[in-house]
């Protein structure tokens, strides 16, 4: 149950980070695309999660109770959450830094991966932390369509009118969110050692 919840929360998070970086780079390079994608992301994020869980099977042809529906839905949500901050973070990279990398012979994609993206990590990490908490919470809603996770404790507790499983589910969900957040902060610090040097 806990492992199911971890998988259903973190698999979409990992996929959405990759998608958001690609889309964010595209938004940064093409201003017209920025307006289109950010507008679409804002609309997508307003769709109720339970409705999206129900719509996904009809779109991708899966069974209603397939956990893939939750993974796809949460990937869409988290990507929508991350696209704008990634594009803004890439846009905030100083132009002289890009010029220096180009002068050193860096091709565009190498410059992006080794210069621009690392400088955008702090903003990206902040969005990922929000996305992780959101996913861990929304996976519980997926229990209403039978996809498992800690949300099963909530549905069982309500169905049996028994408080203990609900309390256990709340505590485990909070602990999982806390542990994942601590791991993400540690990962951010490892990827951006210059920020620690600046603070000290």
Report on the structure:
The chain is mainly alpha-helical and 200 residues long. It has one domain (2-199): MetI-like (MetI-like fold). Helices cover 84% and strands 0% of the residues. It contains nine helices and no strands. It has helices at 2-29, 31-45, 49-60, 68-91, 95-103, 108-141, 151-160, 163-191, 193-199. The longest helix is centred in the middle third of the chain and has 34 residues, at 108-141. It is elongated, with a radius of gyration of 19 Å. One of its GO terms (biological process) is glycine betaine transport.
What's the gist of this structure?
The chain is an all-alpha fold and 200 residues long. It has helices spanning 2-29, 31-45, 49-60, 68-91, 95-103, 108-141, 151-160, 163-191, 193-199. It is 84% helix and 0% strand.
Annotation keywords:
200 residues; 84% helix; mainly alpha; MetI-like fold
Helical percent range?
over 70%
Question: Terminal Cα separation, in Å?
Answer: 42 Å
Number of strands: 0
Mean pLDDT: 88
The number of domains is: 1
Oligomer: single chain
Poorly predicted regions are none
Q: What's the level 1 CATH class?
A: Mainly Alpha
Order of helices and strands: HHHHHHHHH
Strand content: under 5%
CATH topology: MetI-like fold
The CATH superfamily is known as MetI-like
**What is the radius of gyration computed over CA atoms, rounded to a whole number of angstroms?**
19 Å
Number of helices: 9
Structural class estimated from helices and strands: mainly alpha
Indicate the overall shape.
elongated
Question: Can you summarize the main beta sheet?
Answer: none
Q: Quickly give the CATH architecture.
A: Orthogonal Bundle
């Amino acid at each position: 149950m806990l492992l199911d919840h971890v998988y259903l929360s973190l698999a979409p998070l990992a996929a959405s980070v990759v998608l958001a970086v690609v889309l964010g780079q595209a938004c940064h390079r093409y201003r017209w695309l920025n307006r289109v994608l950010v507008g679409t992301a804002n609309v997508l994020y307003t769709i109720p999660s339970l409705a999206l869980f129900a719509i996904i099977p009809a779109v991708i042809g899966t069974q209603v109770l397939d956990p893939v529906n939750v993974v796809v839905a949460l990937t869409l949500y988290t990507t929508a959450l991350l696209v704008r901050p990634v594009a803004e973070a890439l846009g905030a990279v100083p132009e002289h830094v890009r010029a220096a990398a180009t002068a050193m012979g860096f091709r565009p994609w190498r410059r992006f991966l080794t210069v621009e993206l690392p400088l955008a990590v702090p903003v990206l990490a902040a969005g990922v932390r929000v996305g992780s908490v959101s996913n861990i919470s929304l996976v519980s809603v997926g229990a209403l369509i039978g996809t498992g996770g800690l949300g099963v404790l909530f549905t069982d507790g309500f169905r049996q009118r028994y408080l203990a499983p609900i309390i256990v589910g709340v505590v485990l969900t909070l602990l999982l969110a806390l542990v994942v957040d601590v791991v993400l902060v540690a990962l951010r610090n490892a990827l951006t050692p210059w920020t620690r040097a600046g603070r000290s």
